[in-house]
Amino acid sequence: MYHIYKVASNTVVDFAAEELKKYLRMMMPRCGDITIDYKPDATEGFRLGLMADFGLSTAAETQEPELDDIVHIDTDENGGIIAGSNYRSVLLAVYEYLKKNGCRWLFPGVDGEFIPMQNIVPVQYHKMADCRYRGQCNEGAESQQVMLESIDFTPKVGLNCYMIEFDIPKIYYDWYYSHRFNDENREPEPVSETTVLQWKRVCEVEFAKRGIQMHDMGHGWNAEPFGISSTGGWNKDDENPVPEETRQYLAELNGVRGLYNGIALNTQFCMSNPKARKIVIDYICNYAKTATNVDLLAISLADGQKGHCECAECRKKRPSDWYVIMLNELDEAMTAQNLPSRIKFSAYSDTAYEPLEEEIRNPSRFVFTFAPITRSYTYSAPIHPRVEKLTPYVRNVSGRLGTLEESMHRFDLWREKAKCYENYVYEYYFWKHQFYAPGVLSFANRIREDVFAYRDNDFKGMVVDGSQRCYFPNAFSFYVYGAMLFDNSLTLEELIEDYFSHAYGDQWQIVVEFLKEIDRLMPQTYLEALHTAPVPTNFYKPEMEAQLLCVEEVAKKYAAVFDAHKNMPYRVQTVAMRLMRQHTDFCTGYAKFMAIKCLGKDDEAREQAAEFLKEFGKRELAMEHYYDHFMATNALNAIVNTKSEFDQ
Fold it and tell me: 20 to 30 A Cα–Cα from 429, which one of 133, 338, 371, 521?
C-alpha cells in the first residue's frame, strides 16, 4: 500500500496528488488503495510540495521561481520527494516521475495514454526548464471537449502556459459547431455567445487547477470599446452596426470612417486621437479589474494589414509609434488604478515595422512578442540576421514582411525602443503549416532547430498559435515542441524512438520509414504556401509530377501493413495505427491533385481537391479529436486557389 502526502496546502498540489494516485493505480492495479493526506512533516511515502518545503533552494538557478519551472525528484520503491519551484512545477514533476516509470502521453485524451503495468522504480532527476514560456494559443475549429483535452495535455508534454484569444472566442467554436467546410457531411450545431463565454470560464478553471499560466485576449480591443462586436471574427458583416457616436474614432481610409472591408476585427482606430486612446485604455482597465486570474494580458491592434488611419495626425507617426504611446498611457492608467497585470504586446503584421521615435517607459510592465506570421517553414530561424536593404514603410502600402530574416532584423531594432521585461516568440507551426509537411519528420525537426535558434536570439520561449486538433497523423511534432522547450539537449533521434516506439509498438520503424518516404515525395519545400499577400506561386513545377504520382503506390504498400496491425496491445497504439492508415489515403488524395497542380492545370486541380476534401471530410467524425478538417481545407485551399505563373 502506498501513501501520498501533501506537504504544501494548495489546489494545484491537490490535483497533482490525485494525478499521481490515478496513474499509480493504473500501473499497479493490484497494489491496493493509495491514500492521500495533508501532512507537512511527512518523512515517508510520496511527499509532494515546493522545493522550499524540503529545504531545497532555487536561488542558484532562478531569482523568479514563480515563472521558472524546476522539477526535483528523489524517490525509491516506496516513495520519496516529488517537488517543484512553484506549484505548477509540482504537477510537472509528477508527470516527469511517471515518464521515468514508463508512462507517456502521446495524444490528448484518454485514448492518448500509454500506461505500462509494472512496479515503480527509483527516480533521481533535477531539471529547470530551458525555456520560461512554453505554451499554445487556441485556433482552428474547436469543440469544448477538445479544448478540455488540450488543456489536460498541456502539462503532460511539459508546457506551462495557454492563451485564449478574444474575450468571447466564438469564431473558433463556430468553425467547429457549424462544421465549416464540412456541412455537407455533418449537420451544423449552432452555439451562442453565452455558451462560449461559459465554456471559456470552464477552461480558465481547468488552467487554475493545473497552475497553467493564462494569457488572454489579443485582438478585439480595437472594436469592442467603441460598441462594435468583433465576435464574428474574420467574417465580413456589413450589417454589423457602428454606433454613430463612436464612428469618429475609427480609422479614416479614403476619407471614410467605418468598418475595414466590413470586418470589425480588422478595423483599426484613430490612434492619434487622445479621446479614442482613452476609450480603449479605460476599456482595458475595466477588463483587467475582473480578469484577476490572467497572468499576461495581450494587447494587440486590429488583425489584418494596411488598414491604419490616414488622417493628418495619424500620418505623422508610424503605427508602431502610436502603439507605444498607447501602451505607455495604459501603463500609467493601470498604475494609477493599482492594477498589477503584466501586458503583452506584439511585433505583428504592420507593427513588425519598428517605431522611429517612441520608447517603452516602464519595461517591467511589458512582455514583448515576436509574431512572424509571414515566415517560411522551409528553413529554420537564423541567428540575429542583418538585412542590407530593409523594406521602406509606407502607410497602407507596405504589406506584411516577406522574409523571416527581415522580420527578425526589425525585431532587434524594435528591442532598442522596447527594452521590456522579456521577450518570447509567438509562432504558427500548428495553424495550417503542418498540412504542408505530411511526412511529419522534417517539420518536427524544423521546430527543434527553431527552439535552438530562438533561444540564441535571446527569446525566453514560445507560444504557438494552432489548432487544438493538430495531431494528424500523430502528435509527434507537438510532442517535439513541448519536449524541446523543456529540455534543449534532446536529439531528434531520441525523440523519434521515444514517441514512435510507444505509439506504434514493434511496428514503429515501419511507420518512420513510411513518413520518410512521404517527406521525400511530398516535401515541404514544394508544398509550403507562404502567408503573404499576394501569395507567391511556386506550384508550377512539372518535374514534380513523377514523384507525386509515386505516392499512391507507396501509400498502398504501407496501408497493407497498417491494416494488418490495426489492433494493437495498447489502446493508444490502436488509435495511432488507425490514424496512420487514414493518413495513407490522405497523402494519396493530396498527391493526386498536386500532380495536376504542378502541371499548371489550376482549374482541374481545384476541382480534384474539392472532391477529395468533400470525401475525406466524411471521416472527420471518426478522428475529430486529432484531425481538424476546417484547417486542412483552409491550408489546402491556399495551394489550389493560387494561379500558376507560366506562359500558357
Answer: 521
